[in-house]
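Quick one, tokens below. Sequence please?
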């Protein structure tokens, strides 16, 4: 064996020993769904690949356990997106309130999985018949895939949200490519504001977010002064919420409105039901009460051992008794950080050896 090849193998094996040797000490947080099952344990009555909105809606609303896979979705003729049709995709009864205002209603008591492999652009352009949410979930719903879901709204309803969750909800990476999906509420056609997800669960329901990018927005520069923008809105915590990874942020066209990745709209006595094990957050707001004593510190939502670090310079944030921040930060366990490790991997014949993708929760700050 040549010396150069032998040196590479030794260096590479040392790196793998270092990186993967710590995994035995890491908690496993991404295997079980909110319903307490691993994905391999779930057997669906029907698995269907859909290409039209009608097919997707039917499969998700069917009174059976279904796995719905979307690799492409036909757009409305002459448009670059799918335009929701009043009287076809939804009717007047679907817009009476937030809880019933979804275009798609997943039924309680069933297991649903929505795998998004395409970039879906769906818009409600009918201002005379606006929707307030796109999916109202009462099922045990798992959403995964490497694509994206974007929804435009046509109303100023106080809560416009792509997913209004009342059941169990789990969001995972794509099981084949390991890529995360995106749920994007940035508005393209109408001046309004919207959130990616609103969590309002029954007392026995949970939400688990393992990965993904979640975007909220406030898309009006002329009115509704004072409203904030959120990506995720937690209204009712149910049996618990666990965030293990993902990127959470929102945008605004107004300089006097604040943007937050996460809004914990709960009093202090419920904050212990939220556990943040990881993720990048562009701001967090906790509590919204005139009585300041009812507003929790979001530090209490950090799982044991987790710390918050600024995105800008990786410095540690003092989270003591902080209830609201617009700081961009990420959360991780400092014991899982490989910091300033000097490893040299030689290469020859023009072949470069890339480091492997590190699992969620493991960070290699610098290497060379």
């Amino acid at each position: 064996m040549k010396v150069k090849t032998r040196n590479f193998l030794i260096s590479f094996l040392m790196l793998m020993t270092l990186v993967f040797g710590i995994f035995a000490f890491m908690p496993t947080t991404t295997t079980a769904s909110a319903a307490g099952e691993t994905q391999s344990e779930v057997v669906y009555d029907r698995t269907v690949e859909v290409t039209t909105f009608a097919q997707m809606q039917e499969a998700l609303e069917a009174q059976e356990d279904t796995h719905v896979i979307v690799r492409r979705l036909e757009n409305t003729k002459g448009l670059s997106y799918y335009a929701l049709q009043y009287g076809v995709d939804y009717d007047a009864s679907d817009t009476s309130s937030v809880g019933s205002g979804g275009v798609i209603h997943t039924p309680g008591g069933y297991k649903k999985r929505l795998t998004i492999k395409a970039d879906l652009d769906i818009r409600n352009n009918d201002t005379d018949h606006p929707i307030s949410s796109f999916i109202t979930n009462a099922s045990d719903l798992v959403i995964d895939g490497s694509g994206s879901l974007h929804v435009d709204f046509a109303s100023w309803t106080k809560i416009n949200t792509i997913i209004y969750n009342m059941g169990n909800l789990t969001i995972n990476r794509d099981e084949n490519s390991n890529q995360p999906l995106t749920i994007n509420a940035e508005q393209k056609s109408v001046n309004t504001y919207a959130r990616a997800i609103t969590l309002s669960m029954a007392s026995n329901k949970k939400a688990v977010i393992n990965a993904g990018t979640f975007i909220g927005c406030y898309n009006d520069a002329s009115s509704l002064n004072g409203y904030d923008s959120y990506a995720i809105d937690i209204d009712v915590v149910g049996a618990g919420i666990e965030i293990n990874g993902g990127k959470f942020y929102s945008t605004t066209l107004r300089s006097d409105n604040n943007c937050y990745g996460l809004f914990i709209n709960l009093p202090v006595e419920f904050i212990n039901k939220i556990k943040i094990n990881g993720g990048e957050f562009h701001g967090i707001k906790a509590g919204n009460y005139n009585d300041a004593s009812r507003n929790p510190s979001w530090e209490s939502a950090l799982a044991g051992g987790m710390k918050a670090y600024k995105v800008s310079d990786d410095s540690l944030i003092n989270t003591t008794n902080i209830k609201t921040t617009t700081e961009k930060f990420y959360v991780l366990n400092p014991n899982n950080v490989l910091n300033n490790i000097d490893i040299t991997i030689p290469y020859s014949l023009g072949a470069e050896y890339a480091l492997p993708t590190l699992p969620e929760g493991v960070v290699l700050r610098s290497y060379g």
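The two ends are 25 Å apart (CA to CA). Confidence is low (pLDDT under 50) at residues 1-6, 19-30, 94-99.
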